[in-house]
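Private note to self, pasted from the team thread so I don't lose it. Backbone tokens:
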């Protein structure tokens, strides 16, 4: 009987030791300071991309490019402009933040920026990119066209 009591005592002590060790590790893990997640400055710029020249699938290629640079593209895979008569690509500043429009324009190599502010409270995008017939002169590589 004393041998059995000794074995139970040793096993109980081991279980208690393991439990206490686990609690200490868990406490240190839970009380560890949360690491700050760094976000790209581009992620604070909401962009809509529109095809203004009619080349099929063009907007989605530039959407992919902008997302790779961590911009927040808000219109899915892009869309079509009101017409396909744009000879020159343009960036539209929709909310009066010229720096955001300039950042997008520089990323894509678009030289023309227009101020087209709107007071529409439901407007999501800060900047609109309209791709013109000069799209092949912009900062885009052949790899960007590969899915």
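Design output:
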């Amino acid at each position: 009987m004393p041998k059995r009591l000794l074995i139970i005592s040793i096993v109980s002590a081991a279980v208690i030791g393991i439990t206490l060790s686990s609690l200490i590790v868990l406490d240190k893990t839970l009380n560890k300071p949360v690491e700050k997640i760094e976000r790209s400055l581009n992620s604070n710029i909401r962009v809509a991309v529109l095809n203004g020249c009619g080349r099929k699938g063009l907007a989605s290629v530039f959407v992919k490019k902008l997302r790779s640079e961590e911009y927040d593209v808000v219109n899915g895979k892009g869309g079509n402009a009101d017409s396909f008569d744009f000879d020159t690509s343009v960036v539209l500043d929709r909310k009066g933040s010229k720096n955001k429009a300039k950042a997008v324009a520089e990323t894509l190599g678009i030289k023309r920026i227009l101020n087209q502010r709107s007071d529409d409270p439901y407007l999501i995008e800060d900047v609109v990119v309209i791709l013109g017939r000069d799209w092949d002169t912009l900062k885009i590589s052949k790899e960007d066209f590969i899915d």
